[in-house]
Amino acid sequence: MRRATTSLRALPAAISHALPSVEHACKCRCGASLTPIRALSTTSLRQRQKAWSTTTQKRRVLNPADALKLKGLDQELDNIVNTYRHALISWNFNKGNITVTAHEVDHFLTAYVGLCTDSKPRLESGIVTKFATLLETTKIAHKDVLFLAFMLQASHVKREKPYGQKLLLLLSSVGYEEATVQLLYQLLLVSKDNPQTLKVATYSRSRGHLQRLAREGVNVRAMVLEGMIARFQGDQEAAIKLWWSVLEDPVRLDYVTKIRPNPKETDAYNASLQHLATPWIELITIHFERVQRGLKEVDLLERALKIGMEQDDPVAFYWAASYREQSYANGDLRPTSEWLYLMTKAAASGVPKAAHELGKYYWTSGWKYIEDEPPAHVKPTPFDSFKSDQANMATTPSQASTLRPADADQFFRTATYPSTPKQRAQLAMDWLRVAMEAMYDPSYLLMAEIANTQQLWAGAQAPAAALALSPERYTYASEVEYNNAVYDCEEGEDRLVTYTYTGGPEDDPPNPFYKPEAAKLHLVNVFRACKAVDFKAYSLKQAAAAAATRSNGVNEDDWAQDTGRAQDKPEFFKFYQDDGVYDSWAGEVGGLRAEAQAMCEKEAWTLYDETGGLVYRAGIGVVGNLEGIEKEAYFSI
Length: 637
What we know:
The protein is an all-alpha fold. It folds into three domains: 1-174, no CATH class; 352-507, no CATH class; 516-634, no CATH class. Helix content is 55%, strand content 2%. It has 30 helices and five strands. It has helices at residues 11-16, 45-51, 54-59, 64-95, 102-115, 127-138, 142-153, 161-173, 177-191, 204-216, 220-232, 236-247, 250-259, 268-276, 279-292, 298-310, 314-324, 337-348, 352-364, 411-414, 421-437, 441-451, 464-467, 479-486, 516-547, 558-561, 570-573, 579-586, 589-603, 631-634; strands at residues 326-327, 333-334, 606-608, 614-617, 621-622. The strands form two sheets. Strands 3-4-5 form a three-stranded antiparallel sheet, with helices on one face. Strands 1-2 form a two-stranded antiparallel ribbon. α10 crosses α11.
């Protein structure tokens, strides 16, 4: 799982979350009242009509009354946007985040737009020189221009967004390092859906600038980003070399450790800091993948994991748990104290997939909740399989891995809670809700399963003997017998089970959380998430076709511009809000859909959404499909 990243589509909320409400024009620090002046003035209706094609003009003939009304609404929108912008500038100026006033911003943006032939992200002849002259004339700091680029990209006015992208491109073209890093980071995110983006000639100057910064080895974040681009383009060796050159240099490692931002910040700048300041995560994921392919890089993987855990990075703890995970021969999880500690550490810090894994663990696991034998120095515990030799209890160390935190031993004493099927089901749902709040779709499906289960499993009950630490809790007479049963096995034989539940279905208690109607609502969200994936694929296909007809075939957010009805339905669009979380489950959508459909068919359910709209009917399937119908009909739920 990669680190969650902030989507460019989340920028409006990110910038406006701390913005006070505005009803009046702002005042400059000199006391002058600033009448809302549109920095990016709207072309008059008549001028726009001239720019339309003949066919478009025929479709858009307006009577004089409608034209006048449209012009009035256009002016009203201008005033609202300017008031919002002035408030944003003034608030950041007062906080010391920028050194430019709202009046100066209006002047700069008006001049900037005057330089541009259009808003397309391209470099017209001579525009870089003109832009450099503008910066020199206005004396506006590069850092402030970067802020304005983000502001325009985050604008609620669609026609202003490309001006933000172009401003970032120009700022990079005059040599501002941070603009180059931000631009290429954004392009890399977009490249997931449009792999040709980084190869467009428009960005060649910025691409060369980043490569030069990475070679110089001074701008650490540029080195991390260049490694990410190298990996994306298939050069894993170059990526690994760059990232290790950061981690193996004490000065560079100290830098990335100190610049890690507040994880609650969600604007694009902080999002890039969050990702470009964690080269250990890049190394963990690439070495994890290569180890699974059979490459002998276990030592490198463990080194990267250890560095990430030393930084208290929750994503590193998640990967450490995944790496140290043990399984039975049938593929089921064999939970250990180490796994439980690492996964809990990650989930408690907000990693959605870790929260889901814990929810699954508490829902499916029975006694013994953790299967590894407690080391002698922490006994007695409820999980003891045999009576320890008292003479060796203080001297026999645990056989720990190099990644095992010392605190993991405490789980041998605390993991007995919760100890009843009801309590464990409750905790499972609590963790699943954490993942659901982040829109991790598999958790909706598991929550539906819990709500549709009539009986809990009695095997999840901790035995009274274990809770009381009585001798009856032992399942083996000695350590020798235990070792023979658990570890001394023939090849391919699975004898890792240290306790076997012998009860039957008649012992299973009723599930107090059995609520079929709640299960149906969770399944509605599963189907919505699946349609979100379908919609993105559909829109990307449409965007690619549209791009083929443009002189510049790249639009960094084409698919999102086509969300139309989805943006008007937050219960659908919500699944796109965090790209990192979305990517962590979108590849599983086929299995999620099949399991949700199987549950509906088994129960003969008909699903409706909160407004009574039909979503699924047993025997018929999901309402709508992508073949031969308009997308609006398919995405109506």
